[in-house]
Amino acid sequence: MDKKSIVGLVLIFLIFMGYMFWIKPSDEEIAARRRQDSLIYVERMRADSLANATALQNHIQDSLAKLALRDSSFNDSLGVSLPEVLQPSSFFSCNTSNARVKVSVSNNLLKVDLNSLGASVQKAVLSDYLTFDSMPLEVITPDDENFDIFFADSRNSVVNTKFIPFAVYYDDNLISTDTEINVPENDSVVLSFRAFVRQADSLPVNNDSYLEFRYVFYHDRYDIDFDVVFHNLSQCVSNTPSLSLNWSNKLNRQEQFDRSQKGRNASRNKDSERFYTSLYYKNVDDSPDNLRDGRDDEKQITTPLEWVAYKQQFFCAILMSENGFRNAQQLRVATDRSNKDDNYLCSMNSLLGLDYDATEKDYTLDMGFYFGPNKYRLLRDMDRSFERMLPLGWGFFLTQWFSRFVIIPVFNLLENFGWNYGIIIIVLTLLLRIIITPLTWNSYKTGAVMRHLKPEIEVINKKFPKQDQAMQKQQAMTALQKKAGINPMAGCLPMLIQLPILWAMFRFYPASIELRQKDFLWCGDLSTYDSIVNLPFNIPLYGDHISLFCLLMFAMQFVYTVYTMKQQQTQAAMPGMKAMMYFMPFMMLFIFNSQSAALNIYYFFNLLLSIGTMFLIRAVTTEDKVRARMAKAETQGKGKAPKKSKFQQRLEEMQRMNEELQRQRNKR
Question: For residues 158 and 85, is the Cβ–Cβ distance under 8 A?
């Protein structure tokens, strides 16, 4: 750095410090701001306290009301009134005498628990999957308030379905006790939850006027048909622009974490799974979108939605509508900080609008649920763009397309051989290396040739040591490389083409449910990190465990760096490049220690094959061949002016202009 540059930096620093001193507020302004901030803080705390008190009061009122609904002997002396939906003046008050029952429906893939109170899905458990600690895997966790629809009746009273004890019918038979149902093979099961109406106390219950929640379960499917039917209710339900549907779920951990870690360490262990957890939604005329990955977020959407999904790393719960969710949609992901359960991740809630037409005798809202794995083929075959939830990379950089049309089909093909998934990863890595090698051959060949040109390069560096001789130096280097039969620019584009492939693999392996709980060598689960030692403390950015596959990847990365740097020493490298290249393996060690074992296996064998490719090119690119090619090129080029491309001509012209400007500045 010359004196002029140093003086310029000092002046910039002094100007910056002077500007900061000039804009610094006075003591009076600081005091006024503090008073204003204090008033704002007090007002905010007061508003939060009022909101919390109101929410607590509503929760207590709802809980007592539910207790009254479940237990007819509930002590009326508490002075708790039932919700307005079940008051004697309500159309649906006649349903208070219905039996409170729970119905469990099981098929070949999942088990769903439903409650007659509210007619909602209380729990959904997948049959073929377990959590990391071999517990039942719940996609919908038990909650009395995870689903309800509310609307206004013709008396301007608000009706909320979560307070209605529905009558439950199976094969047109009324269910009066807790029941378990198995879906027969190649068949389906239909459950109907009906809430009847009565126009007045003096009139009997009208069995031909009811609100129905109809569920259809199939033997070998994760999706469930769900219809809400307003049958002959035009006189009871107001013809409002829309109904409101509230769907909530508490998401718990499903993947590996160390249960011995408590407090802050347990929270840290959730980070990887929380990163893949998000609320997804799809506009009717647009591609799927989502709230922020792994963070609390909320969004108000005014366009119609086709579906809403609560997605975790490998499983999801989806609510879809054939009619579309209309009007304003409120989507929210929030973390309950008061929940100290180590299994708890976050809570998700969707407030959705539904259309209703009171002029129709049978108005049906055609909806459906999906409770199942994030398996690409399974989601794609439903033809609703569910597969776009999977993190397969960027669409604009071809990464997603490469994952969808190359990696996943080849991976699924290799699965058919019945190999261990670790072997499949190695074979897939080898196949990708075969594809990549023709693209990277020129770049590897350039390094091998430059190794033999070290004496000539040293002569050029000594001949043009000054900064203002950069153009002559570059011209001499280009002429030397051309004489040796290499084009350094030819290796840049192929290296860029590799980036989508590398990024696609980085996104593919952690999102592949096929690798979940599949073992290989000492690793019990390829979808997460392989821990050979659990540390009693947490190392910042590294973690509280040691991954052996990550250590192997680090060792191979270090060997690869040492080998490539030996070849690059023959070239004029940028200052500090060597230190940065040697630092890269250590950075990868910290980044990949908590990544999936499958990803570390891929990078380990990819680096191993890269080193093997470089050894092969080095073996076939001998110094005798390089010298012979240079001699031939020199003989053929005698008396001929070297041809230059337009790009090279423009580049040299720019270099001449820069050198001329530099000389003029030095004269001053």
Answer: yes
Report the alpha-carbon distance of residue 290 to residue 162 in Å, rounded.
Answer: 28
Please write down the long-range contacts of 653-658, taking CB distance under 8 Å and 24 or more positions apart. 655/470, 655/471, 655/474, 656/471, 658/471
CA-based angle 659:664:665, to the nearest 5?
95
Q: In the chain, count H helices and then E strands.
A: 16, 22
Distance separating alpha carbons of residues 461 and 480, to the nearest angstrom: 13
Q: What is the DSSP letter of 82?
A: P
pTM for this prediction:
0.73
pLDDT at 64: 42
Evaluate whether 413 touches 427 at the Cβ level (below 8 Å): no
Helix, strand, coil shares of the chain as percentages rounded to 5? 45, 25, 30
- The one-letter amino acid code at 379 reads L
Helices marked H in 537-645 — which ranges? 548-568, 577-592, 597-620, 623-636
Three-state SS at 619? helix
Rg (CA), the chain: 34
pLDDT, one tens digit per residue, over 176-226 is 899 999 999 889 999 999 988 876 555 556 677 889 999 999 999 999 999
- Separation CA 248–CA 348 (nearest Å): 6
* CB burial string 180-204: b at 16+ within 10 A, e below: ebebeeeeebebbbbbbbbeeeeee
Rounded (5°) CA angle 303-305-311 = 130
Instruction: Say how far apart CA 107 and CA 127 lie, in whole Å.
Output: 9
Query: 580-626 pLDDT, tens per residue?
Result: 777 888 888 888 888 889 999 998 998 898 888 877 777 766 555 55
**Beta carbons within 10 angstroms of residue 462's beta carbon:** 8
Q: Encoding tokens for residue 80?
A: 């708790």
- DSSP class of residue 262 equals -
Say how far apart CA 557 and CA 582 lie, in whole Å.
Answer: 9
Within 24-159, residue ranges assigned H as helices are 27-70
H/E stretch holding 10 reads helix 3-23
Task: Write the DSSP assignment of 527-549 as a string of letters.
Answer: TS--EEEEEEEEETTTEEEEEHH
Rounded-to-integer distance, Cα 196 and Cα 610, Å: 71
Question: Residue 660: pLDDT above 90?
Answer: no
Q: How is the beta sheet containing 102-106 ordered, strand by strand?
A: 136-140, 120-130, 110-115, 102-106, 179-182
Q: Strands 102-106 and 179-182, how do they pair?
A: parallel
Sign of CA dihedral 625, 628, 629, 630: positive
> Residue 78 pLDDT > 60, yes or no?
no
N residues, the chain: 668
Half-sphere exposure (CA, 13 Å, Cβ side) for 525? 21
| Phi and psi based region of residue 143 (left: phi greater than 0; alpha: psi -120 to 50; beta: remaining) | beta
Instruction: Report d(CA 376, CA 398) in Å as an integer.
Output: 18
Q: Which two tokens stand for residue 615?
A: 């050894």
For the beta carbon of residue 246, count every other beta carbon within 10 angstroms: 18
The domains of the chain, with CATH numbers, are 84-389 (2.70.98.90), 399-527+596-633 (no CATH)
pLDDT at 463: 67
